[in-house]
Amino acid sequence: INCLEFSGDNKLVAAGMAESYIRVWSLEGKPLPFVLPPGPGDPSPTASSSRRLIGHSGPVYALSFSPSIATKDPTGPQANARCLLSCSADKSIRLWSLDTWTCLVVYRGHDAPVWDITWGPFGHYFLTGGQDRTARLWNSDHISALRIFAGHDNDVDCVVFHPNNAYVFTGSCDKTVRMWDINRGTAVRMFTGHTSNITSLACAPNGKILASADDAGAIILWDLASGRRMKRMRGHSKGGIWSLSFSVESTVLVSGGADGTVRVWDVLQTTSDSTASGKVIAEGGSGAKIDGTGGATGPSAAGVTGASAGKKSKGKDVVVSADQISAFPTKKSPVYKVAFTGMNLVLAGGAYMP
């Protein structure tokens, strides 16, 4: 599994595979709807709680469900996710129907693998980032990109929309995050301060704060009005923070990544950047990852105890900043995706590696 994505109505989860296909499951275990009538001579489709989407010719790197919300009114307007976007190493983007489980459109424009994709907050528009150092804004009705955002010195690894749909953010392994104006197609902010590759971005629902994470285990919060750094949060081991999500009130941030932990952070608490303000802990899931305290070659204290820790005494403890609210270690599963629901529950997904 390369990537995971939850739908906004919390009914579906999709996984993009290295074997070039996508599998979609019902989180409730119910049979997935299939509205396309069978053709002449075709067997009627069997009810199944999962579907496989085949079309890409390379590994699938990112997925995005169309915006949806959970609703209790069966007579009201349809609010479930109707479409799924996927991007791949085959340089293409595909739009899939979740009613017929077929590919509707193939978008081509990037001339290198496409690393990330996301729908805009109101649907219709979507954003991609790729190895060709560009991010591209698309309209689902048009076959070619509306905007090309060029300026990064390296791959654009992660992309996200501002909640007002007027700005987008791109994170790159040139260690910078850029904010772009959609209407003008120009950069309006550049955020520098990370010491490693940017692996995840999230914009707060109130539109005032941007969170960015890197593969050294650091999360930085940025004030969008001033363009300045609010604070740096530490606690994850090295290996990459692969997903960030804000609560509905924009006061709590949740993160998950390669160290096998889901961590919850207080956005509003102010702390100094010095390690003196943090505490040294020993918790987490994956002991094979390197900690983010100084480039040590040994395993972090997270998940390595007793005899195994004694074998590599060079490993350093993980310093956790004081604004961490809690940490939830998995057995050994890297966390691919974390997502706050509208009721402030957190969904977290990963691949268990026994």
TrEMBL record:
Spell out the residue ranges making up region: Disordered.
Answer: 288-311
Q: Where is the composition biased (Gly residues)?
A: 288-297
Q: Which InterPro entries match?
A: WD40/YVTN_repeat-like_dom_sf, WD40_PAC1, WD40_repeat_CS, WD40_repeat_dom_sf, WD40_rpt
- Compositional bias per record (Low complexity), positions renumbered to this chain: 298-310
Which parts are the WD repeats?
Answer: 1-28, 53-106, 107-139, 149-190, 191-232, 241-275
- The reply on keyword Membrane is no
Identify the CDD domains for this entry.
WD40 (cd00200)
Q: Which Gene3D superfamilies match?
A: YVTN repeat-like/Quinoprotein amine dehydrogenase
Coiled-coil region = none
Q: What is this protein called?
A: Transcription initiation factor TFIID subunit 5
Q: Which gene encodes it?
A: TAF5_1
